[in-house]
Amino acid sequence: MNWSGLESLLSGVNKYSTAFGRIWLSMVFVFRVMVFVVAAQRVWGDESKDFVCNTRQPGCTNICYDHIFPISHIRLWALQLIFVTCPSLMVMAHVKYREGKDAKYVALHQGSHLYANPGKKRGGLWWTYLLSLVFKAGFDTSFLYILYRIYHGYDLPRLSKCSLDPCPNTVDCFISRPTEKKIFMLFMVISSALCIFMCVCEMIYLIGKRISKLLSVRHENERILFADQHELTNMAPPRSQYRKTDPTLAASQLSLNKREKVREGTVTTTL
Length: 271
Fold this sequence. Notes:
Elements: H1 3-13, H2 19-43, E1 52-53, H3 60-68, H4 73-85, H5 88-108, H6 124-150, E2 159-162, E3 171-174, H7 178-229, H8 251-270
Antiparallel strand pairs: 1-3, 2-3
């Protein structure tokens, strides 16, 4: 499978993502795609060839292998990576749609733009981005549940019992390199769980930021409405009518000033 094409497509989504989205994309390609391509395929490359059962009955080994491994880990992880990364293309498609719509608007209205920034997460693009996060977390969770249900946990036993037809009796079957495969399986499971955690953190961040912005806009509108409905008048005389008192004056000087104020008041009353 050519993963470079998928990487080039998703790299364009990186500039429209938040910090959590960039971390998620880095985790997907470094801890999942690279490990899947470089190591995991080689570890599981011999799962069918080196699967051995202690019987010579024709067809027994194939039936037991199909029972123990209903679906290959490699193919299941490949499907998981495809399903998890595809929702990010929804954001890119929406941005491209906005850019095309803005170009038509510019051509019709002589240079004025419909969107100041087509990649800004507002309006419908915000909902598209949030929906892509829900899909990514949902797909990862679903595949982890499928892996758990198929293999009855995240473990690979060293010895498996099989008594299906055409086996003559209960036979012992052995998996090649079960410890190494178990380590890689746990690594992929933990990586998927971390990606789910990053998606949940990004959803909380987007919703919290949206709520705080709505509350600030609502508070500003209420303040403007209150100012329009209530005419604010001067409840106190202007500051020019007050005479400042120097705190460094002595008590005698303060009393002299008071007597002058009283004398001025008597003069004005007699006039």
